[in-house]
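Budget justification aside, the reviewers requested a transparent look at the raw inputs and outputs of the sequence design task funded under Objective 1. We therefore reproduce one unedited record. The lines immediately below are the structure tokens for a 489-residue chain.
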């Protein structure tokens, strides 16, 4: 990995608009290696509103022909793109790990997940079905059609630089939409390669466009553009609310995947070691920097000590290190600002009276000198009103809360503004079904961590999401609109 980076770092990149790479009038900004902050990965556009306008107009011009492209052709192109993702898995993993910080094993898994989700999306192009209804009068019939909505603005965060773009772009193409994609300013490098692969797979010019730049500079221009029919956004709840307000002003549709404060509820589950493995994996994958990370463990009081022992044993197995360390199982935080935010929450937790059982230390020596490394932290003596139990930390911090009984545990789990994912560990089928029904969460996982499937709808309720869920069949509701056709003969 290090050799490849030395050979490929430092290049200057442009936006991808209308099938061509173009420079921005706003110039470029450097992006640095997350684990080697002195190494410039590349120079990327600091785009302007003019760049956004060109990209949207290119997508708008390409839309009629792409929407009319037969579904089997769109399917074949996406299948080829999935093959190219697998072919270039290693290069994409290098780029992804360097700009975001996650381990190579996580990065490789992310690329393969993107290929699998693309193949599912490709199949959906062949399943855009409607209904046929009887007419009210003789010699009449009624049918419903699904048609692509037009230009989609896709906006992604920095924690999953491959899967999140693909999760938005591939379904859009399957359903016949065109796309203007804006990556996070911290992680545009892998996205550049994705654009090249979509083009190589046969996506026509203008169907997929890339504009790189800060949200504060070009975000409003993209979301508010009159030719943009829908906005698919993944990111913070605060930013999602802002996008929703802008979109509502012109009735543009939205698909918002926002924050989470996800609980793992441990009831009368016998295999606490298994529960701990699942919880720790879900809590500290991507260094805890993901919306579906488990951040609260709610356990029955009589099981709390035994579970904490199992959690501590699992956390002790985590090896923090840079992506090129084959033994590393958790990488650095993406940058200094994110580390400062996590450390502030650790300070707040202590100040509120929670007990730090392990972790929360900054690693600075040797290979850790140029990255933002924080060891995974576990708090107990946490109460529901504490900030570390209520606010999304987006880092490697896990809290243990103790409940008197199952009803108390359910109350704690639901006592949050968020409702993305939840896990429940129990040996009682009745409790599993009860919690699955009464948890106010978009996704509930029984006896395993918060890992989603490539074909199942993904989304949240309350302040965790708005609009149709992504990934699965529910994407049809976002990327297409219904038309009703009446025929008299």
């Amino acid at each position: 990995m290090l050799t490849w980076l030395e050979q490929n770092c430092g290049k200057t990149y442009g936006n991808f608009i209308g099938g061509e790479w173009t420079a921005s009038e706003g110039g470029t900004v450097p992006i640095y290696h997350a684990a080697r902050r002195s190494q410039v990965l590349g120079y990327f556009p600091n785009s302007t509103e003019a760049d956004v306008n060109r990209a949207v107009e290119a997508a708008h011009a390409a839309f009629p022909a792409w929407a009319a492209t037969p579904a089997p052709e769109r399917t074949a192109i996406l299948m080829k793109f999935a093959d190219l993702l697998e072919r270039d898995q290693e290069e994409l993993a290098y780029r992804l790990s360097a700009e975001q910080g996650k381990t190579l094993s996580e990065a490789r898994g992310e690329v393969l997940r993107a290929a699998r989700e693309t193949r599912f999306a490709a199949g959906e192009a062949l399943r855009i079905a409607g209904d046929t209804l009887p007419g009210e009068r003789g010699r009449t019939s009624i049918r419903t059609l699904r048609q692509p909505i037009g230009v989609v603005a896709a906006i992604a965060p920095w924690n999953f630089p491959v899967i999140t773009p693909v999760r938005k772009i591939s379904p859009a193409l399957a359903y016949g939409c065109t796309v203007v994609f804006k990556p996070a300013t911290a992680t545009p490098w892998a996205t550049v390669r994705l654009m090249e692969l979509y083009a190589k797979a046969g996506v026509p010019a203008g169907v997929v466009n890339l504009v790189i730049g800060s949200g504060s500079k070009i975000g409003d221009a993209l979301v508010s553009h009159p030719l943009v029919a829908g906005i698919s956004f993944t990111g913070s709840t605060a930013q999602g609310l802002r996008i929703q307000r802008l979109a509502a002003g012109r009735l543009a549709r939205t698909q918002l995947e926002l924050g989470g404060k996800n609980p793992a509820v441990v009831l009368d589950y016998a295999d606490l070691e298994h529960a701990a493995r699942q919880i720790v994996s879900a809590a500290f994958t991507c260094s805890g920097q993901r919306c579906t990370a488990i951040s609260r463990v709610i356990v029955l009081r009589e099981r709390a000590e035994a579970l904490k022992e199992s959690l501590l044993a699992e956390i002790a197995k985590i090896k923090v290190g840079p992506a090129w360390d084959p033994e590393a199982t958790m990488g650095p935080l993406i940058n200094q600002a994110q580390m400062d935010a996590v450390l502030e929450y650790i300070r707040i937790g202590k100040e509120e009276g929670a007990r730090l059982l392990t972790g929360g230390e900054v690693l600075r020596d040797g290979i850790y000198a140029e990255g933002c490394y924080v060891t995974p932290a576990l708090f107990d003596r946490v109460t529901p009103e504490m900030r570390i139990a209520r606010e999304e930390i987006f880092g490697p911090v896990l809290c243990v809360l103790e409940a008197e009984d199952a009803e108390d545990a359910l109350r704690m789990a639901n006592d949050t503004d968020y409702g993305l994912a939840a896990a429940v560990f129990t040996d009682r089928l009745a409790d599993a079904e009860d919690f699955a029904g009464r948890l106010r969460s978009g996704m509930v996982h029984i006896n395993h961590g918060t890992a989603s499937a490539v074909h199942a709808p993904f989304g949240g309720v309350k302040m965790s999401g708005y609009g149709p869920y992504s990934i699965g069949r529910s994407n049809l509701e976002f990327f297409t609109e219904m038309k009703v056709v009446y025929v008299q003969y």
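The domain at 2-258+464-488 is CATH 3.40.605.10 (Aldehyde Dehydrogenase; Chain A, domain 1). The chain has a mean pLDDT of 97. Computational costs for records of this kind are itemized in the attached budget.
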